[in-house]
Amino acid sequence: MAKIPQTMAIIMDGNGRWAKARNLPRTMGHKKGADRVRDVALEANRKGVQKLILYAFSTENWKRPEDEVSYLCKLPGMFFNKFIQELMDNNIRVTFAGELEKFPESTQEVIMKAINQTSTNTGMELCLAINYGGQREIQLGIQKYAAQVAAGLRKNDLSIDEFSRYLFVPESIDLMIRTSGETRISNFLLWQLAYAEMIFTPTAWPDFDEAALDECLQEYEHRHRRYGGLDDED
Ligand code: IPE
Ligand code: IPE
Ligand code: MG
């Protein structure tokens, strides 16, 4: 039987460069990229992935020009309008990781609506990392824990597993993919990637289709994970 990552995370990068190469505005790259979210989520669900975390907007992406940020804020609405029915038909549950409050209310509303509408689905969890930053996530986790200790609600005896539960994403990641050729993490899931397998592909996100995902899943099957130890093959 195929070895499938239970938890998979993707840095969906290269929308802007994809558009520029076609003499299109960067926003057209984001638009095409949103269609790929649908393709890749459905394929991951078909393959048996349990949780797919997609990096859609980082805590650093606010630095971009206002018109690009404003387009990115409209994208969740456009995405769910087009695809919510298919997500329902495929039993996919939508969640998010990050701080939603910084987005316009209309953006928050469409995301919360999709989360509520899909909340009883039992298939793959599709987690959108939006206004997400790994350092911020750890900072918030520490603050929450420290406040509980200060209030006398718990002892200063935190285990690694327990700390994970103070984060937006408590699971560790099996496979992380970054598209478009950059070989860095860009503040994504710093804690959860501790023993993740990583694939960096030159394919731009708007070109990353079902076949491209299948190739990554095949490569993952051949990875030999040791977690610092030794196993039968060593
Ligand atoms: C990823 O594509 C989407 C977001 C970061 C929101 P980019 O917009 O970073 O595309 P490039 O990297 O500039 O090509
Ligand atoms: C990472 O891509 C963030 C998302 C894909 C949402 P960036 O394009 O923002 O990362 P850098 O700036 O190249 O590191
Ligand atoms: Mg980029």
Model description:
By secondary structure, the chain is of the alpha/beta class. It has one domain (7-219): 3-Layer(aba) Sandwich (Undecaprenyl pyrophosphate synthetase). Helices cover 44% and strands 15% of the residues. The protein contains seven helices and six strands, in the order E-H-H-E-H-E-H-E-H-H-E-E-H. The protein has helices spanning 15-21, 26-47, 66-89, 105-118, 134-150, 160-164, 210-222, and strands at residues 7-11, 51-58, 93-97, 125-132, 175-178, 197-200. The protein has a six-stranded parallel sheet with strand order 3-4-2-1-5-6, with helices on both faces. Helix 4 links the parallel strand 3 and strand 4 (125-132). It is globular. It starts with 6 loop residues before the first strand and ends in a 12-residue tail after the last helix. The model has no long low-confidence stretch (mean pLDDT 97).
SSE arrangement:
Layout (H helix, E strand, L loop, with lengths): L6 E5 L3 H7 L4 H22 L3 E8 L7 H24 L3 E5 L7 H14 L6 E8 L1 H17 L9 H5 L10 E4 L18 E4 L9 H13 L12
Parallel strand pairs: 1-2, 1-5, 2-4, 3-4, 5-6
Helix pairs in contact: 1-2, 2-3, 3-4
The structure holds 3-methylbut-3-enyl trihydrogen diphosphate (2 copies) and magnesium ion.
The site of one 3-methylbut-3-enyl trihydrogen diphosphate has 11 residues, from strand 2.
